[in-house]
Design goal:
The chain is α+β, with helices and mostly antiparallel strands and 117 residues long. It folds into 2 domains: 52 residues, no CATH class; 38 residues, no CATH class. It is built from 3 helices and 6 strands, in the order αββαββαββ. The strands form 3 sheets. The protein has a two-stranded antiparallel sheet with strand order 1-2. It has a two-stranded antiparallel sheet with strand order 3-4. α1 runs antiparallel to α2. It starts with a helix and ends in a 15-residue tail after the last strand. It binds zinc ion (ZN). Zinc ion binds next to α3.
Length: 117
């Protein structure tokens, strides 16, 4: 998704730079600097990419939507698909420094001690 945006913006302005790019409340936040920043067409594409980011699973890229862990009333919001929402709610997958970690592979951190007796 972001690569698509990058190519679109490069076509419009080869000198553009991404100033802010972070995931917040399940949606990408993108700010563009450079000559393209004032261009309405660029802003429209950035807005479209931000909106699209709320419908794509952050773990696997499948269609999804913004949910909290276990659909709690409050908590961290991510855009997730149904399958990943289940795993995320069970704390079996997580995103660390932008990459997906799975508990089963042993790559993830141990959050727990819940049943470590
Ligand atoms: Zn997923």
């Amino acid at each position: 998704m972001l690569l698509w945006l990058h190519e679109q913006l490069l076509a419009l302005d080869p000198g553009y730079q991404v100033d802010v790019l972070k995931e917040k409340l399940g949606a990408a936040r993108i700010r563009i600097t450079g000559t393209a920043a004032a261009c309405a067409e660029v802003q429209a594409r950035v807005t479209a990419a931000e909106e699209q980011s709320t419908t794509v699973c952050e773990f696997c890229g499948a269609p999804g939507h913004r949910r909290t862990r276990s659909d709690a009333m409050a908590g961290w919001i991510k855009a997730v698909c149904d399958d990943c929402h289940r795993a995320w709610s069970h704390h079996s997958i997580m995103i660390i420094n932008g990459s997906v970690h799975s508990r089963e592979t042993g790559q993830g951190i141990d959050l727990g001690g819940l049943d470590s007796t």
